[in-house]
# Entry
Amino acid sequence: MTISPQTTMRELLEQCPGAQRALFRHYHIGGCASCGFQPEETLEGVCARNEGIDPLDAIACILEAHEADEAVFIAPNEADSNVRNAGARLLDIRTREEFEAVHIPGSQFMGQDFLQDVMGTWSKDTPIVIVDHTGSRCLDAAAYFTGHAFSNIRALRGGIDAWSCEVDPTLPRYTT
# Structure
């Protein structure tokens, strides 16, 4: 991974999907209209217009957060083993339409009503694997659960797309 002050925010988010979450947490950058950024802006430019943050400090923050994110990911085969052997639950955060079109057998759609049930009745140490389409949004959901005291949360690396390639090739792949 190569990040420099001249890296565009688009490139940064492609390399480190959790970078925006890290920048917001540490510097309040990228979470709302007043502190947002454009994909073509460089990290250096974003840092300069946000109280002159040292871009090298921001890079260190991003890399530290990226390392923590990597520890949350779980490979599809390992997730499958955890579901079969350790009782892990698969929570699917895709749209209802995507879920109804194709989903991992045994996974549960994470609608608002179901989320309330999970938060109110599930043990905080329940092993949970968050599923999305390609693994790009599941880290945010995992962070949400972790922030609500769930201690055994993982994010499916590559999402249902990787699951269909590595675990169950009968699941149709799709693009959005």
Q: What stands out?
A: The mean pLDDT is 94. The CA atoms of residues 23 and 29 lie 5 Å apart. The first strand starts at residue 73 and ends at 74.
